Amino acid sequence: MSRSSLPVRFLPAAAIGGVLALALVGAASLGVSWSSSSSFCMSCHEMRVVGEQGWMQSRHYQNDAGVVASCSDCHVPHRLFPKLYVKARDGSKDVFVHFFGESDPSRMNWDELAASARRKVYDESCRSCHQNLTPEGLSIKGIVAHREYLRMKGRQRCLDCHLELFHGGFREYLFGQNHEGGTP
What we know:
By secondary structure, the protein is mainly α. It has a domain at 14-116 and 165-175: Orthogonal Bundle (Multiheme cytochrome fold). It contains 10 helices and no strands. Helix 3 (45-53) crosses helix 10. The longest helix is centred in the N-terminal third of the chain and has 31 residues, at 5-35. It starts with a helix and ends in a 9-residue tail after the last helix. The model has no long low-confidence stretch (mean pLDDT 83).
């Protein structure tokens, strides 16, 4: 057998390997895209109440611009490798809690969960939608605060000032109008 015939002999195996690799990358891409949708996030009953009674009632769902921020727009980094890491880490934790943890929304510690969720909101996520930090009509206090934020260059986070509960409506739904927060 001559040296020139070796590559030809492996060509079908290389072609099959290439097609399988492309199919695997395509399937992984579709899986990441599908599992990044808000409908996927709300498919677990633990998150459905947060989505339907909180997020869907917030400005991140209903606003004059008609822009809807999905769960992953806020809670998952946008760059590929950090995104894959966070999805694997948080997805594994969520599956574990769903099957082995407290999955009754009325018994969950929502103050602790809210603090954890805020830590998983990335400034790059906020800034991807809120690029203009001094829009027309913003108060002087807001302009000064946003200029200070820019001057701090990463030593301050958007949520250091914007503490409002973006998913807050679900608490009243679960616990009634008099609920102040935390576990009932």
